[in-house]
Design a protein that fits this description.
Layout: H1 2-32, H2 41-49, H3 62-68, H4 79-90, H5 94-100, H6 104-110, H7 112-122, H8 142-160, H9 164-184, H10 188-210, H11 214-220, H12 231-234, H13 237-256, H14 266-275, H15 281-295, H16 313-318, H17 323-326, H18 333-343
Helix pairs in contact: 2-15, 7-8, 8-9, 8-10, 9-10, 10-13, 10-18, 13-15
Length: 354
């Protein structure tokens, strides 16, 4: 009985002591994290990637046109066309297209509005994406992806009809359009859409070449195939800078939201209240910028020691191991796709083209 009283007395001293120690450590962390950082040189550099071009009028901007026409409900496709798209996405679909070739002109005519939308989009010589600050600003890319596939079927029909010169011009227009877009993508989703469109373009071009005699292959090849992708076209600097801006804007939005929007239960809201002081938006943006520039080979990654985690620990936790995430977005393989397409030609001497 005496032992039990001693244990109870010890616990009555121990529990307040632990609470006092926890409160002291929490107060110490609050003091360490009391002030946010100023924008770092790395953060300012990423910001500058988004400011290469002067603001463009909406009526000249192809991206603005896409935003205005990005509702999939306005440009629907039939089940038959969707199945044909799926077949061409999986493999070389020359046999499938040959089988449906009698019906293909009517199928394309049925979706003329979608083809017109795409050819109107191609007419824009400028592309300027707005850095995203919220998910609601992301346009739907479904119409333009469907339209691109339909455009390639339109080219296939031209080739089958023997109008190789017209097909060459259509291939030229498409390649020029996507090379403009990929050079100005300012978020990774747009960059991946561009990469997918160019991969589809070169795969389809190779399928067309395989169906032609050598002299017709040369007549089909646009001069743009002979122009290597530039470092700017294959760079992810702008897209990664856009992701950095989006991430920073999202953190600002979360921190500005009332706690009742961040959790449904009291425990969740109380946890957020405890942890929020250790998520410093500008320090997080600075650390993120340094990591992203390291992924691009533009800076050295931070060498974090244990004591560095005392400052902005939540921000550092959110932004760990970013390079492995962004490596899958590389655009470098596009140049190999171009070279593979050229290799399909049996004669690399191009006729003079307008």
């Amino acid at each position: 009985m005496r032992l039990l009283r001693k244990l109870t007395k010890a616990l009555l001293w121990l529990i307040p002591g632990i609470l006092l120690l926890a409160l002291s450590l929490y107060a110490l962390l609050l003091a360490i994290n009391w002030q946010d950082e100023a924008p770092s040189a790395d953060a300012l550099l990423l910001q500058s990637f988004l400011q290469h071009d002067a603001p463009m009028a909406d009526e000249l901007n192809g991206y603005h046109f896409l935003q205005e026409h990005s509702d999939p409900a306005l440009l629907p496709i039939s089940d038959k066309l969707r199945a044909l798209f799926a077949a061409c996405e999986r493999t070389d679909c020359h046999d499938e297209l040959t089988a449906v070739s009698p019906d293909l002109p009517a199928l394309i005519a049925e979706h003329q509005a979608l083809l017109d939308f795409y050819q109107q989009l191609q007419m824009f010589s400028y592309w300027q994406e707005t850095p995203l600050s919220h998910h609601s600003q992301i346009p739907s890319y479904q119409p333009v992806m469907h339209a691109h596939r339909l455009y390639l079927l339109h080219i296939w029909l031209k080739v089958q009809a023997g109008d190789v010169i017209a097909a060459r011009q259509l291939l030229h227009n498409d390649l020029q359009f996507w090379r403009v877009v990929i050079r100005h993508n300012q978020h990774l989703l747009g960059s991946m859409i561009s990469r997918g469109a160019l991969e589809r373009y070169f795969a389809f071009s190779q399928m067309l070449l395989a169906s032609l005699e050598p002299e017709h292959q040369i007549a089909l090849a646009p001069v743009g195939w002979h122009a290597p992708f530039s470092a700017e076209e294959l760079s992810l600097e702008r897209a990664i800078a856009g992701e950095w801006f989006f991430s920073s804007s999202y953190i600002d939005e979360v921190l500005a939201a009332p706690f009742n929007e961040l959790g449904n239960r009291f425990a969740e809201q109380f946890t957020m209240w405890l942890l929020t002081p250790f998520l410093l938006p500008q320090a997080t943006a600075n650390d993120h910028a340094t990591q992203l520039l390291a992924c691009l080979g533009r800076s050295q990654p931070n060498d974090l020691r244990w004591y560095h985690w005392l400052y902005n620990p939540m921000g550092k936790t959110l932004k760990q191991d970013m390079c492995s995430h962004y490596q899958r977005y590389s655009l470098q393989e596009l140049e190999q796709h171009r070279l593979d397409t050229l290799a399909r030609l049996q004669n690399l001497s191009f006729p003079e083209q307008p």
